[in-house]
Amino acid sequence: MKLKTLIPKSEARKLVVSRRAEISPIEIKNKTKLIINRLSGTDEFVYAKNVYCYINSRPGEVDTHSLIDFMNGWGKSVILPKLSKNRKEFSRFHFMGWDKVTKNNEGYWEPQFGMNEDMSDIDLIILPALAVSLKGLRVGYGGGYYDKLLKKTFAPKIVLAFEFQVFDYIESDPHDIRVDKIITERRMINTRDPARFY
Predict the structure, then answer these.
(1) What is the CATH code of the structural domain delimited by 9-133+151-171?
(2) How far apart are the first and last CA of the chain?
(3) Taking the model in full, what pTM does it have?
(4) Tens digits of per-residue pLDDT, 59-105?
C-alpha cells in the first residue's frame, strides 16, 4: 500500500507564492473568467441570496473584484469581511459600491465600516486560500481568522483557486475546517469525494 505524502503547510505556502510570481495579469483575467463561469453553474451559487466573499488583495490571486461585480449584477447581496486584529475577528458590511471600499494600513482591500459578526443569514461563503488539498483543507497566511469565522455557520464553503494552488495532501491541524468545493480554471472538486471532478 502506497503511503500518502503530506506536504507541510510551510512548503505549500512557498511553492504557491513562487508560482504566483510567475502568473501574468492576462492569465489571471482569463482563468478567473473560467472559474466564475464554473461557480455560476453550481446550485450553491444559483440559490444563494447572501454571499460572503473576500476581496483579493495580493498579486497572483483569483480576481474577486470581478466576481463581486458579477454577483452584484445577478442581484445577490454581497457581504464583505472587515478584520479587527485586536479582537482577531471579522465584522461585516454589505457591498454598496467600490467607493465604500479602501485599502487598510496593511494593503488589504476591505469595507470602510464593519458591523456585526452574525452569519445566520449567509447562504454561501467564498473563501481565500493560499493553498488547498483535495480533501478541502485550506492553507491561509497563519492568522486563523477564517477558521474562527467558519465555526459560526453551516453555509456551503467554496474556495476559488488556480490549479497550481491545489495539492493532493497537505498537513492539517485538528481545528482546521474543510471546505465543500474547490473551483479552479480546469475543474470543480467535490471535497467529500475528491475523485469526482466536474
Answers:
(1) 3.40.50.10420
(2) 28
(3) 0.90
(4) 899 999 999 999 999 999 999 998 877 777 788 999 999 999 998 87
